[in-house]
Amino acid sequence: MILAGKMLCAAAVIAGLLAFFWRDTFNPDSIAGARVLLTGASTGIGEQMAYHYSRFGAEIVLTARRETVLQKVMEKCLQLGAEKVFYIPADMSSPQAPEEVVQFALKKLGGLDHLVLNHIGVTPFQMWDGDVNHTRWLMQVNFHSYVALASAALPILTESKGVLTVVSSLTGKISTPFTTSYSATKFALDGFFSSLRHELTMQKKDVCITFCVLGLIDTEAAMEKTRDKVYMSPSPAAEAALTIIKGAANREREIFYPWWLELICRLRDWFPSHRDVVIQSFYNHTST
Ligand SMILES: *[C@@H]1O[C@H](CO)[C@@H](O)[C@H](O)[C@H]1NC(C)=O
Ligand SMILES: *[C@@H]1O[C@H](CO)[C@@H](O)[C@H](O)[C@H]1NC(C)=O
């Protein structure tokens, strides 16, 4: 009886601590009027982030490749209550694009509080076929352009004590099948931005880097690609977008969506061979 009582007590304390650490401390006012530059803003999670930022009354510069789609997203953002919205079409495989985009945002918004790096290049979801050229191109789009955008914006973010949000994936923490090049670009982001986070702290620069680890999200592109190939249920893009925005506003170093990805990442290296068997069981072995 006494033991049961003690265990109950311990469970209550743990539940209380979890509730405390996971409580929602998000204050929407912290984003009202914030100056945001958002990449990959035309579809998927980026588009949903644009709408959430608009509802919170941010001032936004949207960028992606396709002008007609950006125009539509901009119109919806204005309807939803964004203070100001601008867009600039840009292809992040071009080495000049990052600097041009940051300069455009600076000119339009007069500064920057949030830089949200979210765009990705189109990549096949299949077994490695030896296309090294594709890997090189994807590295430019998913990694080198992130570094260039962050470098161009860092002096501005330092001034505003801003936030740099880097959208990544579970496969940027734990490798999964059919994502060789993609996984490599996302691991590279973790290495670069985690090292940069150290340096910002050492230099006493108050710029937060929020690294976002996302699972399978129900965007059109992801659903199309993974159909018949993975046995996992996707999570909604709008909720993923809101979780990212809240995490960045709260200046968290990492966010995980869905939340249980954090447990998987923490346990990553405990039982590697069992881990790989479990991971492979979620993928269609007969697909190429
Ligand atoms: C390499 O990939 C890029 C981008 O997909 C493409 O434009 C280029 O033609 C490719 N080059 C070769 C040699 O395949
Ligand atoms: C696995 O992939 C094969 C080949 O694409 C497909 O025919 C089959 O339906 C898939 N299996 C499942 C359970 O989705």
TrEMBL record:
The keyword Calcium does not apply. It is found in: Secreted. GO terms for molecular function: oxidoreductase activity. SUPFAM superfamilies: NAD(P)-binding Rossmann-fold domains (SSF51735). It comes from Pelusios castaneus (West African mud turtle). Keywords: NADP, Oxidoreductase, Secreted, Signal. One of its GO terms (cellular component) is extracellular region. The keyword Iron does not apply. InterPro entries: 11-beta-HSD, NAD(P)-bd_dom_sf, Sc_DH/Rdtase_CS, SDR_fam. Unidirectional NADP(+)-dependent cortisol dehydrogenase (in vitro). This is Hydroxysteroid 11-beta-dehydrogenase 1-like protein. It catalyses: cortisone + NADPH + H(+) = cortisol + NADP(+). Pfam families: adh_short (PF00106). Belongs to the short-chain dehydrogenases/reductases (SDR) family. It comes from the Eukaryota.
